[in-house]
């Protein structure tokens, strides 16, 4: 489903109704979208828009304290700004404490601006004077959390900051074209591709020049720009540091959501491993050399290369500083911190309780237990004791990323694991979070398994499931690369430089599926559809008791069952929490300037997995997977939820609006399974074996044309 500008405005106005103190016209909404887009243009150099230059010169934080709902926030930021912050041109990483605190301070400055005008003036000021990485991160978090900008569409991060998504040779080619050929007319290649008046660069994935390990053959998946953008946006909507007085996440079950996100990402990665002949995600021991090396093929905007981890890296060597001083660099002790924090988490799971900072016990095996455990492991503001249980993720990323110790906090060269935009590229990411998910599994092993009576839906039976033929293929994805190069003030103002990148990506042919359900009466039901492996890499059948964590949720919806036979028909465009590729920056900007009918994806004001990665890559002869469908009684969500209109389907962060019912995330695979047959016996569920094929895109097009002729 698509939205035009008019529909987008109608939806945004629906949001305004939730905040009756604000009166926002259609024109204001479109103007704000334009304002936001301009703030993201060429962030690695100062803005040359005339109004930006004038605002940056005339506006001051210290002269407008009264325009912030918390003046002390503005006073604090101005004080640390005068002390000296991360300079422009230096690399920012949210996993360095000094960087993070500066980003949080800037976010609070944005968030507590009392009106949109103050927010915009503050953003323009920061655009000119604050480190570009800190600015980009803090501004993005503020936009999706402020009431008066909620629903504004963020431009694709891979177009705003392409350095973190495309290999260094691609960026280098963009530099070369800009220096040598720009101004002599557009290229012949550009003329031949849909009338595009610019230069097109073909991009490869890492491993094209150097492949350190066989697992790098999965780079088409791990380096998919849409997948990495999804992970980045998830952490923009749910920053691990945000909570408490700044923002209320109590309705989001954020600890449980934290677990479920990583369990689903790992399950999807495992499906892709199977299609490439790999098996289980490897496990590692901190005392044993880390087998999987990684070569990022990325370069920072300031010219530094991303660090490389060799095969069989000795993690304890991270402690060594080779004669240099440690200073206040606490990350040099990551090897010790990671093992201490993991031991404390294991002890808490075995004991069944955690200690707060005041020494009080919090029961882990309660209704909110998994939420408490998730908050504790993530070390967010809702953690019972973040000081004792520690920021495990932060230190593990430093350790496994294998970046060398910086001489000071402002001159760093973080690894791929130390940026949300690049984390998924490194195989170590999946190996570390497998350890995290296994801690949750250890916790779940102490929970009571579902019985047949728990799972059965009286009077309801799933009699059959049908899927269309499932076919995957690679097609070309075009992305704007213009922000990678530096431009003159005239080029900046007129948006004259046009460079794009073309890269193959995994996709699948759209498909429809049907669920046949009989019901003895009219009633509302919750329907879940999962996709998981049926055989391992050796062709051996995997029991569901050993396989439950490998299932990916592909759909979830409520349905009004009628008495008698029901045929539920869904298609791959309706899948829950998946989204189409984001509309390009250039299209969005043209849309708000000319009010043209350029369309945007329905849920671009939220985050979601790329819909084209719904299926793992198939094989020419077909690879067997299995779908699991379960129909359950509808149980309304018990938390507070924002009312959503049909025109504005985006759940507001903190409202619990994304929950369709009150079942645990991942139900019914959220508990141990002792007897496989229970899941095969209940009549309201169904296992369906599906074979996924892979074809060349030309074969897909020819077969589609043939079907249309028939």
UniProtKB/TrEMBL annotation:
<dbReference type="InterPro" id="IPR000896">
    <property type="entry name" value="Hemocyanin/hexamerin_mid_dom"/>
</dbReference>
<feature type="domain" description="Hemocyanin middle">
    <location>
        <begin position="156"/>
        <end position="440"/>
    </location>
</feature>
<dbReference type="InterPro" id="IPR014756">
    <property type="entry name" value="Ig_E-set"/>
</dbReference>
<dbReference type="InterPro" id="IPR005203">
    <property type="entry name" value="Hemocyanin_C"/>
</dbReference>
<dbReference type="InterPro" id="IPR036697">
    <property type="entry name" value="Hemocyanin_N_sf"/>
</dbReference>
<dbReference type="Pfam" id="PF03723">
    <property type="entry name" value="Hemocyanin_C"/>
</dbReference>
<dbReference type="InterPro" id="IPR037020">
    <property type="entry name" value="Hemocyanin_C_sf"/>
</dbReference>
<dbReference type="InterPro" id="IPR008922">
    <property type="entry name" value="Di-copper_centre_dom_sf"/>
</dbReference>
<dbReference type="InterPro" id="IPR005204">
    <property type="entry name" value="Hemocyanin_N"/>
</dbReference>
<dbReference type="Pfam" id="PF03722">
    <property type="entry name" value="Hemocyanin_N"/>
</dbReference>
<dbReference type="Pfam" id="PF00372">
    <property type="entry name" value="Hemocyanin_M"/>
</dbReference>
<feature type="domain" description="Hemocyanin C-terminal">
    <location>
        <begin position="450"/>
        <end position="694"/>
    </location>
</feature>
<dbReference type="InterPro" id="IPR013788">
    <property type="entry name" value="Hemocyanin/hexamerin"/>
</dbReference>
<feature type="signal peptide">
    <location>
        <begin position="1"/>
        <end position="18"/>
    </location>
</feature>
<protein>
    <submittedName>
        <fullName>Hexamerin 4</fullName>
    </submittedName>
</protein>
<feature type="domain" description="Hemocyanin N-terminal">
    <location>
        <begin position="31"/>
        <end position="150"/>
    </location>
</feature>
<dbReference type="GO" id="GO:0045735">
    <property type="term" value="F:nutrient reservoir activity"/>
</dbReference>
<keyword id="KW-0758">Storage protein</keyword>
<keyword id="KW-0732">Signal</keyword>
<dbReference type="GO" id="GO:0005615">
    <property type="term" value="C:extracellular space"/>
</dbReference>
């Amino acid at each position: 489903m698509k939205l035009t500008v008019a529909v987008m405005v109608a939806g945004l106005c629906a949001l305004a109704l939730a905040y009756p103190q604000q009166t926002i016209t259609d024109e204001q909404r479109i103007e704000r979208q334009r304002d936001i887009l301009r703030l993201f243009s060429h962030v690695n150099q100062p803005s040359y828009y005339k109004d930006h230059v004038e605002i940056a010169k005339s506006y001051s934080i210290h002269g407008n304290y009264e325009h912030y709902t918390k003046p002390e926030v503005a006073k604090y930021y101005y004080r640390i700004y005068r002390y000296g912050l991360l300079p422009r041109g230096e690399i920012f990483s949210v996993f360095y404490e000094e960087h993070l605190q500066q980003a949080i301070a800037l976010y609070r400055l944005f968030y507590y601006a009392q009106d949109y005008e103050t927010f915009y003036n503050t953003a323009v000021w920061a655009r000119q004077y604050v480190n570009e990485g800190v600015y980009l991160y803090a501004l993005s978090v503020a936009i999706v959390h402020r009431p008066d900008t909620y629903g504004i569409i963020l431009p694709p991060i891979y177009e705003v900051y392409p350095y973190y998504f495309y290999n260094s040779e691609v960026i280098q080619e963009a530099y070369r074209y800009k220096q040598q050929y720009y101004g002599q007319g557009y290229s012949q290649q550009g003329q031949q591709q849909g009338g595009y008046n610019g230069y097109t660069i073909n991009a490869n994935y890492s491993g094209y020049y150097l492949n350190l390990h066989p697992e790098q053959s999965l780079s088409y998946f791990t380096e998919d720009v849409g997948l990495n953008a999804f992970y980045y946006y998830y952490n923009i909507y749910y920053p691990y540091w945000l909570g408490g007085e700044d923002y209320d996440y109590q309705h989001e079950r954020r600890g449980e959501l934290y677990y479920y996100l990583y369990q689903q990402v790992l399950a999807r990665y495992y499906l892709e491993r199977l299609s490439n002949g790999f098996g289980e995600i490897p496990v590692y021991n901190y005392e044993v050399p880390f087998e999987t090396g990684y070569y990022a093929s990325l370069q920072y905007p300031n010219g530094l290369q991303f660090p490389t981890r060799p095969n069989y890296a000795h993690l304890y060597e991270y402690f060594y500083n080779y004669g240099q001083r440690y200073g206040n660099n606490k990350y040099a002790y990551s090897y010790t911190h990671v093992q201490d924090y993991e031991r404390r988490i294991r002890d808490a799971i075995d004991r069944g309780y955690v200690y707060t900072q005041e020494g009080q016990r919090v029961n882990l095996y309660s209704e909110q237990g998994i939420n408490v455990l998730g908050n504790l492991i993530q070390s967010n503001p809702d953690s019972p004791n973040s000081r004792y249980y520690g920021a495990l993720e932060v230190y593990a990323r430093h350790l496994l990323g294998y970046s060398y110790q910086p001489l000071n906090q402002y001159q760093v060269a973080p690894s791929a694991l130390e940026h949300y935009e690049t984390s998924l590229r490194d195989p170590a990411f999946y190996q570390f979070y497998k350890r995290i998910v296994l801690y949750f599994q250890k916790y779940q092993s102490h929970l009571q398994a579902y019985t047949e009576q728990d799972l059965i839906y009286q009077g309801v039976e799933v009699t059959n499931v049908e899927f269309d033929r499932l076919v995957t293929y690679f097609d070309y994805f075009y992305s704007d690369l213009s922000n990678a190069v530096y431009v003159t003030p005239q080029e900046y103002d007129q948006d004259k430089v046009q460079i794009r990148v073309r890269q193959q990506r995994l996709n699948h042919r759209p498909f429809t599926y049907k669920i046949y359900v009989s019901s003895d009466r009219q009633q509302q039901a919750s329907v879940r559809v999962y996709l998981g492996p049926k055989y391992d890499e050796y062709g051996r059948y995997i029991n569901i008791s050993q396989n439950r964590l490998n299932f990916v949720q592909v759909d979830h919806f409520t349905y009004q069952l009628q008495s008698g036979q029901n045929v539920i028909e869904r298609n791959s465009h309706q899948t829950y929490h998946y989204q189409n590729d984001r509309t390009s920056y250039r299209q969005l900007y043209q849309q708000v300037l000319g009010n043209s009918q350029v369309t945007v994806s329905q849920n671009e004001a939220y985050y979601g997995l790329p819909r084209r990665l719904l299926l793992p890559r198939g094989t020419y002869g077909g690879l067997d997977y299995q779908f699991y469908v379960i129909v359950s009684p509808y149980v309304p969500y018990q938390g507070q939820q924002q009312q959503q209109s049909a025109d504005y389907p985006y759940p507001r962060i903190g409202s619990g609006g994304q929950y369709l019912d009150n079942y645990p995330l991942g139900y019914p695979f959220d508990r141990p399974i002792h007897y496989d047959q229970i899941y095969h016996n209940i009549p309201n569920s169904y296992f369906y074996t599906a074979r996924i094929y892979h074809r060349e895109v030309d074969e897909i097009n020819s077969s589609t044309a043939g079907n249309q002729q028939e």
